[in-house]
Amino acid sequence: MAKRVLHVVTTVDRIGDARHPTGLWLTELTHAWQVFEEAGFEQLLVSSGGSAVPLDPRSLAFPALDATAKAWQADTARMALLQRPAAPAQIDAGDFDAILYAGGHGAMVDLPADPGLQRLAASIWEHGGVVASVCHGVCGLLDVSLPDGSLLVGGRRLTGFSSTEERLARLADVVPFDVEAALRERGARYAKAVLPMVPYVVTDGRLVTGQNPASANTTARRVVEVLAAS
Q1: Which of 13, 104, 194, 217 has the most crowded Cβ, counting Cβ within 10 A?
Q2: 139 is annotated as an active-site residue
Q3: Considering its fold, how many domains does the chain have in total?
Q4: Is there a catalytic annotation at residue 135?
């Protein structure tokens, strides 16, 4: 049977007191989707409450907008997927082999606060599946608790958008918290590339995390490799 991957995407289009426009960083979805499609995987989108998915305006401009993202925008069927993702309550975690949290700054707001999404990640992890994230998508893993009460990220090696990258994005004073600091506070063994904004992926068993948008493709490929080895 084909492997099945659940993509978690944000529904938040504004952050901060300045109401900065945000949303899903499109290539974090499209790069991973293409890798999984080529691997023959089945894929499904899920969002908090099953609400529609806004796109971060900055992800739709050069140089962020690449061929995969342009192809999505030109495909009415795929763009329609963003308007009608599943809600967590509609998903049976046992049907999926992996869950991947995409980023965009909106992910800092809704993904950490949704108990339904947290249950999906914890359940997929507990039945031997892969839990993965790209960039700010790791925020969805911050408070995922396992049956023994421990945090999924506690004591595990992982990565996510760094403090340096947040400053380079000029949003350090806009975001609700610092991703790197929040991960460290929860006991995660945070790691990052020497240089910012370059592909960097950390694998700790069945936990696969990418640091930034440039890491989406490699993160997905690593997920494929981990699933093939399991």
Answers
A1: 104
A2: no
A3: 1
A4: yes
